[in-house]
Amino acid sequence: MDNERRxxxxxxxxxxxxxxxxxxxxxxxxxxxxxxxxxxxENGVSKIPFCKDFRQGxxxxxxxIYVHAPVVLEDEYLKTGWVPRFVLRHCLERFNLCIQYLKxxxxxxxxxxxxxxxxMLGLELNKxxxxxxxxxxxxxxIEQISRMCGLCIDFVRENCTKGEECKFKHCTPAAxxxxxxxxxWEDVRNREAENGYIRRGGLLDGPTMDGNMxxxxxxxxxxxxxxxxxG
Length: 231
Hints:
- The chain has 231 residues and is mostly helical.
- Helix content is 30%, strand content 2%.
- It contains 11 helices and 2 strands; from the N terminus they run αααααααααββαα.
- Strands 1-2 form a two-stranded antiparallel sheet.
- The longest helix has 10 residues, at 71-80.
- It starts with a helix and ends in a 7-residue tail after the last helix.
- Mean pLDDT is 79; it is low at 1-15, 205-212 and 216-231.
């Protein structure tokens, strides 16, 4: 194990011209610790890799490493930096990422000896998003979250005309656990659109996504069981 960690930390130049296969697939998050060569990066920012074959309905890999999700989810992520919990779990598990580094906005107490990958992936989440012991609200549809939190559903749909006289709550999606500070109610509504991933009963396949949506063979519940080993 010690030899493995030392080789993991070697400079990428130590391996000559051998290209990093993970980088070519968009799944290397080792940064300067990678011992293989990376081509020049335009901005040096790693992003979550989404499966293009899944979008076309032709991904046949049971253990596909890429995230299986609709375009509307990726578009919101690129706009706001927010992702639902099942995507976060997938990234932590499949890409072997350091949960502390993500939670602490780029800080890990173990530094270079950490055996997990250090990459922010363009995510903008708060610490509560990493608390896998509590229920998340963002699997709910608009009607469900409005009833639970006393929200004005007309406000959520951007057509409340009562203003301060409205007896129901007017607030942002972030205030009720439906996204971050950049998330708009339009983003939340788009999750329920025809090409979205939220339906009247919640997520497309129930509270935990199955392998067809997630990619990588297994639902969110299965991956959640291993979260204790992270970070």
